[in-house]
Amino acid sequence: MSALEWFALFHNIKRELPFLFPHLILCLGIALNIIVGAFYKNSAIFYYGALASAFGSLTSYLLLLPTLGNGAFSIFFNSLVIGGYTAIGGILLNIGLVTTLLFIQKSNFYPRNQELYLLLLGAFLGLHLLICANQWILVFVGTELSAISSYCLVAYPKGKKTAAEAAVKYVIYGSVAAGVFIYGISLLFAFTGNLYLVNQKQTWLVSSLPSMALIGAYSFILAGLSFKIGAFPFHFWIADVYTGAFSATAAYLATSVKIAALIFIMRLVASLPDALQSSVQNILAILAIITLLVGNIGALGQKNYKKLLAYSSIGQSGFLLLGTLAPSLAGVLLFYLGIYLFMQNGAFYACTLLAEKIGSEYFRDWEGKALQFPILSIALIILFAGLIGLPPTAGFSAKFNLFTQVYILHQQNSSSYFLVALAIGILATLISLYYYLKVPAIMLFNCMAFGKKATPEIPQSPSISTEILSFSILITLLLGIYGFDKLIFIFQQNFEIGY
Amino acid sequence: MLSLLIFLPLLSLTTFAVLPSSLRNSLSKYIAIGTVSLQTLLLIFLATSPSISLSSQGFYTLEKTEWLLINLGGNGYLKINYLVGIDGLNLWLVALSLFLLFFASLASWHIERSHLYFALLLVFDTALIGCFLALDFFLFFLFYELLLLPMFFLIGGWGGEKRTYAAIKFFIFTIIGSLSMLVAIIALQAAVIDPIATVLKMGLASSPETVSHNLIDEIWQLLAKNKLSHPEMVHTLEYFHLIEPKNYIAQAYFSLPSIRVWGFLGIGLAFAIKLPIVPFHTWLPDAHVQAATPISVLLAGILLKVGGYGLLRWLLPIFPDVFIELQTTLAILAIISILYGAFNALAQKDLKRMIAYSSISHMGLVLLGIASATPQGFNGAVFEFVAHGFISALLFLLAGVLYNRVHSYNMSSFQGLWNKQPYYTFFIMLAFFAALGLPGFCGFIAEFLILAGALSSPALPLPLTILTVLGIIIIAGYFLKCLQTMFLGHFWSEKKEWEEKLSDLTFFEISQFYPFAILIVFLGLFPSTLLSSISPAMQNLLVDLEKAAQFWFH
Prior knowledge:
The complex is a heterodimer of chains A (499) and B (554).
Chain A: H1 3-37, H2 43-68, E1 73-75, E2 80-82, H3 84-106, H4 114-132, H5 136-155, H6 161-192, H7 200-206, H8 211-229, H9 237-244, H10 247-271, H11 274-300, H12 305-322, H13 330-358, H14 374-388, H15 394-413, H16 416-445, H17 467-481, H18 484-498
Antiparallel strand pairs in A: 1-2
Helix pairs in contact in A: 1-2, 1-4, 2-3, 2-4, 3-4, 3-10, 3-13, 3-18, 4-5, 4-10, 5-6, 5-10, 6-8, 6-9, 8-10, 8-11, 9-12, 10-12, 10-13, 11-12, 11-16, 12-13, 12-16, 13-14, 13-15, 13-17, 13-18, 14-16, 14-17, 15-16, 15-17
Chain B: H1 2-18, H2 21-48, E1 61-71, E2 77-86, H3 88-107, H4 114-133, H5 137-146, H6 148-158, H7 163-191, H8 195-202, H9 213-224, E3 234-236, H10 239-242, H11 257-274, H12 283-290, H13 293-318, H14 320-347, H15 351-372, H16 375-406, E4 414-415, H17 417-420, H18 422-435, H19 442-456, H20 462-487, E5 492-493, H21 498-501, H22 507-525, H23 528-553
Parallel strand pairs in B: 2-3
Antiparallel strand pairs in B: 1-2, 4-5
């Protein structure tokens, strides 16, 4: 390379570097964590370090937002695309990181040390990479970086038997899914000769290729991604892993990982050439339908709060998959993801605290405890109402918009898959009602036994920290009646700018 | 003003959070009663204000605020306004709600864990009044769903032995209806546009006041010719736009007769479950019997009316054509409800269960009145809302008295209560006679109007009306049978120790029952107090229905 070319390269990097700041701040956090960890063992400093890098990353995304409002930037030789949706996804992920950190910090039973924070930062770096990667190799790097960190997070802490078992299951399923995923990528590479997500040449090639082959490749890719979001066909690990892992890890797996993977699927659908769009949409609709049924029916009989939340999160993945059916649903999907982050984390947190205080993960021991833990019970009712989608919670506004958009989609291309998906979505809402409401019902009804005295009121321990809960509830209630229309509109616009 | 009426309970709920927990338990009932009284005063103030004439057609007063504007991508917008209004149809239902809420609160004076109970009751209050006043289908749906959660916990938390089962059954039945209504709402919003907002969106006018009739006519013509472009359409769920057939997009699903039937059935299912119409009634006996007395009062007295109100306010005006086609079917369903409820009530051994089944019969009468599509039938149906509200509430309160004394509803365990409890027997006789439709009581007026409507309606064959009369005779039969077995003759009770417990009504109880008794007789003698404002509204509704149906048939 001549000096001039070197100079041009350097100049480009200098111009493009600011877009990477959110990622670099996380990298900096990781590096500092390792360096400080060599000398210092007190966990508090690592917690604040991780929190600082999360907020740093959040701030740099917020600062990027005005620039991104004008259009998307593809940087580093088109390997990354930074657009409006990246900023929104990144902000959501950083909120997820902060929530997970708070969750870990506020759970008394969670042993904390340096590696934990290192792994978390690593996992989130992978997720951040995933939402803006424009090249399949980078996509794979992103998924695997987060997956490998997650394997270790599930196994954490060392020596806990159930966690180790869960981690082994997770690794095995994860490797299979990664294999399927990369097989799909290699097929795509073989057909089109390039590894970019958005590429003119690919569009041109597609018309000359047998569509079945490409659909096969995309099916493999979607199957691999379904592992990330815990959807059919790779949903089997969810229940076991959530049960074995700590709640904070399970909550992280149920929210942040899904956010990144679903935003990526959304981008994938938006980048598809027109000839393929409808076939991939149908595949997604079928995946969503099966996921909705599997998750919601599976949750019906659960007696343990972790299993219930695990299956219900599979069910929620089904709803979220409905949001990836077409680019016009991106705004709703991002909104749903945002409130889902709060509701699911809040539900995990409330349930964990209850289980911890009652001393049992099984609902049969939760009977009639509502009056001992009034704040937690009310929180649980509101958050579960949100997850069901009852008005006036944000869950309802998300589902109302989602169903409306799917209906419009059906009207536009009269594909019966969409109508079936809509019907199954409604049916799934109905099923979810039973298992979500079962929990507050068990807790409330039996403490008000007719003619019987309730269990004596135990003074409530004051150690409940309500940051996560109050924030989740606030978001759940506020966005249920006000402002969701504008938020969805902004998200949609940002997504369209990105593409 | 109307919004204050709706949201006052939520405001007073916030005082619960401020109160120290030691006071919360003892003060909650006063807060609840105070709130309901304040709401009642507000309503009276509203109804007597000089700007309102209760005998006018249409809405007395409306409140409107812009609320949501949902972007539907390439399909335009969905504009949702906060719109509430009051007219002859919902005025008396709101009044009835407040009256029953007041007495239900009084009846739950000594309830356990009262802070929780009254907090739920206040949420229920807001949802109920909101449900009756909302004039945007989305807003209505929000309040309609909000009714569920507090009621679920109220039934499940304070009821009888099998209350959990009853609460879950109630919830699942109602939510099935709600979800089918949700699907219909989604399809409905895709079919209806707001012409004024569309004009504004297209830039043809600058403010809503400057939109002329010609412009709206133009929009309607474009719509009929399928020439309006999608991104400019502003969809709506507002009552006034939903009832105007010209606002429907010609190629939308809900403009095709074969699909409009499904829309009718989808929304109708929700209200059919709520009303309830046989065969969607099975939640009712369980919920009513298992719930605590004040909750049964609210369930039978007012919650069932939400279903009937929904039929009149939403279902018929939106689908007048389907309604007219299905009139006879609805009437047959109504007769089945009447007879089924009556025969079941006849077979019951449990007093509360018998009253619950009698509610099914009476709601069947309401449906018959609605199905007749005559002014008398509609007036009778709305009058029956109020009449049945008072009568069934009084019946449940009276059944609760017996339960409080001896913890039994079993009719064959008692005989000759007349001797021990003359006041109690007096009130029960009054309520029974009112329920079976004796002239002089409000039940008679309602039944008379409904039967007159059914007879004069051309769509309802005569044998149906004759069957109804048979049903009414059976209703009289089981009430009289109950009266005879339980109250007349020599005193006898199943257990010896009950003899002392079966004391007559206390002053507190009598003071609760007298207002009901007075109103039941008063409305029976002077029905025009209500009918003078109900009938203009119903007249208006019928004219609208006929006009819209004419349009749809062409």
